[in-house]
Design brief:
By secondary structure, this protein is mainly β. Helix content is about 10%, strand content about 35%. The protein folds into 2 domains: about 100 residues, Ribosomal Protein L25, Chain P, CATH 2.40.240.10; about 80 residues, Ribosomal protein L25, C-terminal domain (RNA Polymerase Alpha Subunit, Chain A, domain 2, Beta Complex). The relative contact order is 0.15.
């Protein structure tokens, strides 16, 4: 489940290069929140707070409870949002701008979640294969409370030349994949730089007996989860 954090924000009425420069001088970052039923609003957030928040995140999906200070002494507002995009300086990697997508706790959201493997594939461990990561992220739908930070896929059962598809991923409760179910996520391919086995010098020489290799049970079946 995605981590939900709280972040303070203030409305930003001045826009333009000079105002943004002044904003950064006082340690803030320009931001915008949009989506749901409200009009987009320009905000400013503390640069140190957002940098700390992003550095501790496991994945890219972070639910943020934005506590927006009221304008001209008005009441503060709290909005549940999802970090949609973060712009960084190409050299210094400073945060330049943050986009927040407002969401409702009782409405399904469509988003993309990164996929990572866990475990060591049997085809890699025992047969010298290479694990290829073909699909890096998964499109899903879910309620905000069910949003995972990352999708972990156990590849331990994958044998040599076996693959795992979207349809075989075990998803957390409340999460539905919308990516093509036939897309390959992981595959264990044969190594192209295999090392030829070296015969034991002490072994007796004799006629070579060639036996038909017994097919591995379940080799052609989808990998078990």
């Amino acid at each position: 489940m995605a981590k939900q954090v709280t972040l303070s924000a203030r409305h930003r009425s001045d826009v333009g290069r000079n105002s943004v420069k002044q904003l950064r001088t006082r340690g803030s970052v320009p931001a915008v929140i949009y989506g749901h039923k409200d009009q987009p609003a320009n905000l400013e957030i503390n640069a140190r707070e957002i940098s700390k928040l992003l550095s501790r995140a496991v994945g890219e999906n972070i639910l943020v409870e934005l506590q927006i200070a009221g304008e001209n002494g008005g009441a503060a507002a709290t909005k549940l949002s999802l970090i949609q995009e973060v712009q960084h300086h190409p050299v210094r990697r400073d945060i330049l701008h943050v986009d927040f997508l407002e969401v409702a706790s009782d409405e399904v959201i469509n988003t993309e979640v990164p996929i990572e493997s866990t475990g060591e594939a049997d085809g890699v461990k025992n047969y010298g294969g290479l694990l290829e990561h073909s699909l890096r992220s998964l499109h899903i739908t879910c309620l905000p409370k069910d949003l995972p930070e990352i999708i972990l896929v156990d590849v331990s059962a994958l044998g040599l030349n076996q693959s795992l598809h979207v349809r075989e991923i075990v998803l957390p409760a409340g999460v539905t994949a919308t990516s093509d179910p036939e897309l390959t996520v992981f595959i264990v391919a044969e190594s192209k730089t295999g090392v030829e086995p070296v015969a034991d010098a002490a072994a007796p020489t004799g006629p070579e007996v060639i036996k038909e290799k017994k097919p591995t049970e379940g080799a052609d079946a989808p990998a078990k989860k």
